[in-house]
Each structure stands twice: as C-alpha cells, then as structure tokens.
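FAQ

Q: What does a record look like?
A: Structure on top, sequence underneath. For example:
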C-alpha cells in the first residue's frame, strides 16, 4: 500500500476551507467577504488577494492568518 494517501486528506482541506469561509462571513458579512477576497491585496499573502492565494494552493489557515493581520479580526474568530 505504499504511495496511497489516506482517504481523509482531501476532506480535511475542504473542512479547512469551509471553516475559512465561515470565519470570513462572520467577520465581514457574506457579501463583503467575497469583495474582500476578490479585491484586497494583502502583503501577508505576497501581494496577492485571498482568492489568488487560495487558487495558488495556499493553505486556508495561512490565508486566514494574513486576513487577521490585515484587518481587526476579533480574538473569538482567530
């Protein structure tokens, strides 16, 4: 069974991404969260937007940390 990945690996990424968007929506509201993700270029993401970073395969946790640094995100959402 060498070379086989555990079946949960893909689902774990999906859970993290789901959690990421739940936190984005909680912080900004659903509509504005989409605007932030599309339009705001963040230094913590190498001068990329949230959408660009996620499309490039950046981990959702890393992207969320960059959002927290760039915006005044309450501790309860961190």
């Amino acid at each position: 069974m060498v070379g086989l990945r555990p079946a949960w690996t893909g689902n774990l990424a999906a859970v993290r991404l789901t959690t990421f968007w739940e936190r984005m929506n909680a912080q900004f509201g659903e509509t504005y969260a989409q605007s932030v993700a599309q339009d705001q270029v963040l230094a913590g993401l190498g001068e990329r937007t949230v959408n660009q970073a996620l499309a490039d395969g950046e981990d959702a946790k890393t992207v969320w940390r960059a959002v927290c640094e760039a915006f005044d995100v309450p501790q309860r959402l961190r």
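Q: Is there anything notable about this one?
A: Residues 1-8 have pLDDT under 50 and may be disordered.
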